[in-house]
């Protein structure tokens, strides 16, 4: 497979704006799921799950005589899985957690094959590839079982319901009657359920863990974030509105995403022949943008590009970076779960 690796910020701008390599999602993803994503629908679940996790930390510290070692990364993964499972699968959330657990296993196995460097290696009957195939079938079966149970149950307000409605809309647009057992509809539903995990669970957990690590390394910023949180949540209750007033915390998260972006590459495929500056891009070519290289480019961010300085975002992304389009922690497309990240 031929690939084009892009690190020139000016070409990145073209990639963002060029419709011939656009891989945008259907409009119903942002319109119909708005209440779940960016309009406060998930905050209650986030507060509930986080409060439970903090209580467990306090118990561990208390039982250990005032200090305790806590595996933050694993707890963050469990926390994000808990929140997303409840949001994605509603009353079937326990089954959703089982699905996400299997997806985690699949992700670990697939990462082994990421850069093997042997053409068609994913088709070889290796032990890893056989296990990947087995897990894929098991996960698909688990998702479809939950979906079929939902088809005969009362309507719920969760991601799964929106995915089902989206599949129906796609069928209506293509003049294809919606049938649960139609392979194309099944694939759409299964793929979207998987996307929720890969787009949100791991990325959110990683960003939260890196943020906490950086706050531990830079106690002055930890003190500023703590003071802001206490001011915004005087009654001890965190709400969607109080989060919007935490400007210092926002800059800390933005800087964390700059230094440690959850995505390694932004990958696009040319749907037709295109031209990016002086580069002729043939149809079918895969285009990769290494995000970390853009995020730590001194020409874009200044001499301190590799250092932790949240204040660079005090006046927004446009003031922080010479080419704002080069700041793409969730890739240049809108991350479906960006609004719930910590």
Automatic annotation (TrEMBL):
Which GO cellular component does the record give, naming just one? membrane
Q: Does the keyword Endoplasmic reticulum apply?
A: no
Subcellular localization(s) per the UniProt record: Membrane
Which keywords has UniProt assigned to this entry? Heme, Iron, Membrane, Metal-binding, Monooxygenase, Oxidoreductase, Transmembrane, Transmembrane helix
Pfam families, per this entry? p450
Origin superkingdom: Eukaryota
InterPro entries to which the protein is assigned, alphabetical: Cyt_P450, Cyt_P450_E_grp-IV, Cyt_P450_sf, Cytochrome_P450_Monooxygen
Gene Ontology terms, MF aspect: heme binding; iron ion binding; monooxygenase activity; oxidoreductase activity, acting on paired donors, with incorporation or reduction of molecular oxygen
Q: Hey, which family's this protein in?
A: Belongs to the cytochrome P450 family.
The protein in question is named Uncharacterized protein
| The organism of origin for this protein | Chenopodium quinoa (Quinoa)
Taxonomic classification? Eukaryota, Viridiplantae, Streptophyta, Embryophyta, Tracheophyta
